[in-house]
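Dear colleague,

Following up on yesterday's call, I've attached the two folding results inline so they're easy to grep. Please treat them as preliminary; we haven't cross-checked anything against experimental data yet. The first protein's sequence and structure tokens come first.
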Amino acid sequence: MPDLRRVHRFRDHPIEGVNWRPTRFVDEVPSSGVCGLCRMIPNQIVVLPCLHTLCQACHAASSQGAGGRCPLDQEPFEEAECGSYHWPSRKANALKVHCWNDAHGCEFEGAMELMLRHYENECTFHTVECLQCGEEVLHKELSRHYAAENASSDSQVLTLQDVTAALEELKALLRDANHEQLLLAIQSQMNELIEQIRNQEHRSAS
């Protein structure tokens, strides 16, 4: 499980496609550049008198008129006591991040701009959903996955031996069962056979 202390989202990042996406950083981001509440990395940081840092949105939500309370320790503050500073984009761009596909096995590490280029043009660990089973499968392995699924389906095809075995069970019941038990047994066997045939037809159609 990834270290959530190193998972952040950018806000107001100049590179298109980066903002609001959960991103895992190689090293811990300095607390001075992170909102202590939502863990966003904004370009404008507000510092409260208690020294907790907030993005502008979290600061506004915590304020009431000329003051408010820190959402992290409930310490009261006055707006006049708060500081604010700009966290340059070049600092954010210099931080190394993991590829967004790291959970699927990608080991790329690099600056955000390089990672985005890698993710869109080079990464081979993108996943897609298998239309047969609904699983998330690596795109590069989808063909092999489909072949394995079809082989598994073929091995489950209802055969004449299956039907014959079911009939033999019914014959055995017929010899020493009363009619009510026999009807229940026949109905149960028929339901199973019908369900197997329907599943087989569904797999063949897909």
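Below is the second protein, in the same order (sequence, then structure):
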Amino acid sequence: IGTPPNVVLAGFAELLLNIDINFQNWLMIGLPLVVTLIPITWWLLLKMNPPEITHLAGSKKIVKERIKNLGKLKGGERNTLIVFILTALMWICRSGFNLSFIHIPGWTELLGVPWVDDSVIAMIAVLLCYLSPTDIRKWKFTLDWKTNLNIPWGTLLLFGGGITIGKALQETGAAHYIAMNLVELRSLPTIFILSAVILLAKFLSEITSNTATTTMLMPILFALGIAIGVDPLSLMIAGAVATSLVFMLPVATPPNAIVYGTEYVSMSEMVRNGLVLQIITALIWICLLYFVISALSSLVNF
């Protein structure tokens, strides 16, 4: 759920490969990447953009006053926090933990409800928000229908429509046709193919939405993997993650657009910094992906 491409990837993995990418599985891939990239990108950005101001007089006092003015958690805030924690725990602990010497069953296994997946848990969370009161005497709850009007339904339709288009590419043979034109790649080393997928995904995401890029690439990468004898899931994960590692242009990702929209960062600064981050993150993701191929392959057995 970190970024839209993650959701798109999970949808296509289940649709095309019948693989459930749960939170535990994804942590094997995402956690090493996050732990590696955050300190490196932080250091690079500070080196390329030395802070003009290193200390703001009275800043600590202002922060403390703002925190004090917030007051205690209100009913809706408290309910939302509780539901969030419960939802995260249900997602993480849904499947069991397989350690080398012991198997710790997940709560769905203990309760005998293997049909419960992440989407069902999300619906439970929504229902809890509807049912948790903030003022029972006034019949007010954490979530009501009026609040629903502000939900970006268009984004949800984009996900669903994208997966539908991807399925159409698969069913009509369009994805297979594109993949067969790339079948000569089978003679190349797997790491080279993965690197090419990462670079292609990053380039395409710079000129269009990373969600749209992921939606377009997933069925093609699936068919390509089948055609050249490479694990399709490895190609799909390589491409999906790469679409989120784009930093040069505002159109690439919503965070890029938000940063550029502040008008504190010019286009030239964004391109200059983004280009360096593009190269560094591509190299890091290629290296990490090479060492976690075994983890990617193990997902097929889940």
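For the second protein, one point worth flagging: Residues 23-48 form the longest helix (26 residues).

Best wishes,
A.L.
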